Amino acid sequence: MSFELSQVGLAHANGQRALRAVTLSAGRGERIAIIGPSGAGKTSLLRILATSLRPTEGRVSVLQANPWQLSGAQLRQLRARIGVVHQSPPIPPRQRAITAVLAGRLGVWPWWKSALSLVYPADIAGAREQLARLDLADRLFERCDRLSGGQLQRVGVARALYQQPDLLLADEPVSAMDPALADLTVSQLHSEASTRGVTLVASLHAVDVALRWFPRVIGLRAGEIAFDLAAVKVSDSVLRDLYASETGTLPTQDNQPFDVAPATDRLRVVAPPRII
Amino acid sequence: MALRDPDAAGRALWVAAALLVLWPLLHIAQFNPAELFDARNLKVMGGFVGQFFPPDLTGEFLQLVLKATVETLAMATAGTALAMLLAAPLGLVLSHSLSISRIGPGPGRGFGEALRALARVTLLVLRGIPEIVWALLLVRAFGLGPAAGVLAIAVTYGGMLGKVYSEILESGDTRPARALLESGSGRLMAFFYGLLPGASQELASYTVYRWECAVRASVIMGFVGAGGLGQLMDQSMKMLNGGEVSTILIMFLLLVLLADAISASIRKLLA
Predict the structure, then answer these.
(1) Residues of A in Cβ contact (< 8 Å) with B189
(2) Is residue A165 a contact partner of residue A82, using CB atoms and an 8 Å limit?
(3) A3-269, which class in CATH?
(4) Which of A67, B89, B95, B125 is disulfide-compatible with B169, CB 3.0–4.6 A?
(5) Are strands A82-85 and A167-171 parallel, antiparallel or unpaired?
(6) Which residue does chain B place closest to A109, by CA atoms?
(7) Domains of chain B in sequence order
(8) Quick one: closest CA in A to B195, which residue?
(9) B44-84 pLDDT, tens per residue?
(10) Phi and psi dihedrals of A26, rounded to 5?
(11) What ipTM was reported for this prediction?
């Protein structure tokens, strides 16, 4: 098991409930998309898996460990094995792309190596390789405040890839990208997952990206799991129910209308994830 | 329902409360601006300021002033440098944005909070006692001379810098550091990779400002025998030589100007 949640609930300090009775598990190498309207609890769920939030109730097990029973040192080691792509990349604007990517290994590097890397980058080739996968190799030494929103988001992805985690969590990893770059980025997350046997969980705003790329799709609504299905089984009516309170059209990466073909058709139409 | 700001009443209440507290305080401090413009007082003050002109610019005295300036600069710079050494670790310990145990909260929370409380108390004691008291105390150990002044500045300013460092580290964007801590990074590296890039300008300019204050504080140290411009001013004052005092004051203005220029260029460098 890569992670296991049982009856997990989360209430924020102001009493607002973010999650209730979420039971969910995933095996090694699974690729899961989480979709749902805004405020459904997608980010909260990912943050619980990332061990950055402690659930109010229920049991959590991540990479065969209960994070909240570990010692400080063990918890740090566990966290170094979990890679997170944040929706708005938490990267200081004055930092260079290479430093931002190399920061992915701070959890495993000894402190003196991290310190020396501030004087002269410790692994230029490694950082360049990850940025190149996302078509950003030429921005290696660029300062992050000179990058566009979509480029910065890819630097954040490159950092998580450079970390070489065993569990890769992505919170709206492509929200600031156009459809082509979104596809490239998601494909790289997938290739990382399949080549290294990493479990990938991504929350996505765009239903089309979720259905095209992820074998398993979880619908989250008002803090509860609305459905947990193989992508081919996700039907139009299931999606309409999930987004019932929104505008009526399903959210997509390119903002074009999207209709789910009947499941039987899509079995033929949908290509398996392209591994680049 | 009318469109009204629900917080307006609360704001008004706080402003009223602040004024209510301030008014008696002004009375206790015997603040009466009218006295400033009383004819008799104006004459006395005018006479005092009049003694300052013209400034004493004779070569012999200028030489004394230059020598004292170098001494003052050395005292302020050494004191501020030592203060930084003292403040940096305390500020890092104190800032919540670098707390690993707060995430969750996780293990070691009690220890972390205890350490923070200890750092807070240490800083409080360091800066709570005025530098002149530290100087008077240290003069007894080191004897007359700049060493006591340097240490007095180091101790007091270490306390002030540590407090402000930790506040600067908490006021900016703390998400980068938190994200690094959440991926297993240690505290110190989360600071270097996550907080320093965003906070370096503020940290540097506040430190330079404190250096400027240290230059002024060294005058007071001079009055208790720690050397530098302060001691020179003390002598000039005692001899009622206004011209010399005004020369020293001009030197001070130049030093403050210098501090301004240094601060501006460091900010530009770090931008």
Answers:
(1) 106, 111, 114-115
(2) yes
(3) alpha beta
(4) B95
(5) parallel
(6) B185
(7) 59-89+129-174+198-270 (1.10.3720.10)
(8) A92
(9) 888 888 888 888 888 888 998 999 899 888 989 999 999 99
(10) -145, 140
(11) 0.89
